[in-house]
Design brief:
Helix content of chain B: 25-40%
CATH topology of the largest domain in chain A: ABC transporter involved in vitamin B12 uptake, BtuC
Number of strands of chain B: 10
Structural class of chain A: mainly alpha
Number of domains of chain A: 2
Shape of chain B: globular
Order of helices and strands of chain B: EEEHEEEHHHHEHEHEEHHH
Largest interface: A-B, 25 and 32 residues
Radius of gyration of chain B: 18 Å
Oligomer: heterodimer
Strand content of chain A: under 5%
Number of helices of chain B: 10
Strand order of the largest sheet of chain A: 1-2
CATH class of the largest domain in chain A: Mainly Alpha
Chain lengths: ~450, ~260
Amino acid sequence: MSDFLRLITLQDPNTRVVLLGVALLGAVCGVVGAFAVLRRRALVGDAVAHASLPGVCAAYFVVGDRNFAAFLLGALVFGLLAVLCITLIRNHTRIKEDAAIGTVLSVFFGLGIGMSRMIQNDPAGSRAGLDGFLFGKAAGMVRQDVLLIAGVATAALLLVVILYKELKLLCFDREFAGSLGRRVVLLDLALMTLICLCTVIGLPAVGAVLVVALLIVPAAAARFWSERLVLILLVAGAFGALSGTVGASVSALYAHVSAGPAVALAAAVVFVVSLLLAPRRGVVADIVRRWALRRKILIENFLRAMYELDELASGGAANPALALKRTWTAAQLERAISLAERRRLVRREGGRVTLTESGTRRASDVVRAHRLWELYLIDQASIAPDHVDRDADQIEHVLPPEVLARLDERLRSEGRMPGAAVPASPHSWERAEAGRALG
Amino acid sequence: MPHAQPEAPAIEVHDLTVAYHRKPVLWDVDTAIPRGRLVAVVGPNGAGKSTLLKAVLGLVPLASGWVQVFGRDLRDARSLVAYVPQRESVDWDFPVSALDVVTMGRYGRLGWIRRPARSDTEAALASLDQVGMKAFAHRQISQLSGGQQQRVFIARALVQDAALYLMDEPFAGVDAATERAIVELLRAMRAQGRTVVAVHHDLQSVPDYFDYVVMLNMRLVAAGPVASVFTRENLQKTYGGRLTLLDEAAEAVRKA
């Protein structure tokens, strides 16, 4: 517990530096990752990450010692080499991009694993700390390592800010960008380089296997929260920073937990929460919306049925709610009545149910929408009059007011709306009622 | 409108061949498209219609030949040319608004670094207004109907204030109201002396909407004023052998 306290109060200067560095790393990965996702290059990031492992090993062979900057440089060179291989295979053979990515990723990674085993079997090499590059060892980084990472991250972030407008153009409409005379190949290369930089500086902290989690997952999660690119970038950056720091903290607290899996799991939590709870694109919001629509449809169908029965009986001699039992189940009817009653649309007196004033208003709106749409369908889509009722059922509840106004205007101009606010039903009501589906 | 070389045709294509993966899709195309016309590019699927537009824009490598726009190399005439790609070529779930998309039409003059200024936003809004979409300026583009998306694309080209407009199927999948609105716009653009070249699929409406036609089937079959070139014989050459299209072609000729 004291470890935990020491960590969250940032008492240890090295922890402080590492967590700040990881936060910055997560932020830039999130931002660049958002562009990678929008440009549909998410998996290239993964290929780059795996492909950079032999670069780290090669750097060790060349330098012969643990040299952090050399490791990152080696990783960058091999990452870019992997991008080049993928591009060449995609452009000059019949192999599609996914297969090209899979091939390059596995070949490079296999090479990297082989090389790192060679190094680790060598007594001198086992101290090179290469295992950290596989699954990440954020806590193992020292101040200079973090400063280098932070420097590269800041540069990458600056590049994104400078190129923001161009990256947006590239990701949305590459061909249009080309028609403006933009060198789209250069722009794509810039984006690829950004992806490579992020992956490479993420290697020591998160590891080659899972650094893609920091690049893609926060970006994918951010997409749920906004429809504006700037906000998505900011949210992705924040999510990245959060996932990075939480993951690194967990792995610092529990020595046997690598940073990579911890970061990936933290990002996964952020993703799942976004998927479920985002206000407009989230699953819960969607379920609530659909549920509300179903209720609205139930109430509106009930109101319309009441209105039409009133129309038939011209004055409401019979009990409308009773008459509906022919086509509605008792449970549906009871639910519709109680929902409508709670909204003060109907009044229950003894066994009788009648529309209130606001209920009548709402019902006539619904009937009007329904019949306008029916008339339109008969007129424009040549649907037989005895079929339109069911077709109209599904649409009338969602017709926007401007469409209704246009329908009204149109039918009026054709002389088919003789004065009344609610047009007469274009079909025999009894027949349609028999075929009506609820909802 | 930007200046162009006097007298030179809007587009001149000389001995143009374009190949994808070494398979030619356009062969030896030679043609000159005059200025101030509404030009339909017609031909069956895979005839190279879109490729012709992309070749003019320098978006695809040329296997042979050259292209000039208003008598100049394309590099010196970029600001004279605006492009409306096929609507399906982009992801409409992209997190931008209609206004953002139209503002991209100003990026050409802004260059790499400069950000859109208030004047750019105003120009974009004016052009959205021209296509009847001002009320939708701040809608995210996935919330627009197909016809509205097409209008946004056209507004983006309008804001470029170009002399030559290349449009890839501007009428594909749009509602009747949008189609009428686009035709009106095209006519207004022609009245201002602009040239519009559009890939078009509905042969019947060619004589109504356009006054010049380029008929392609990997090779150039014919090009010229609709009245003299859009003939039954040329249609047969263009769509040769495709029986289902012949009736449509015959009807189109009848109306021409």
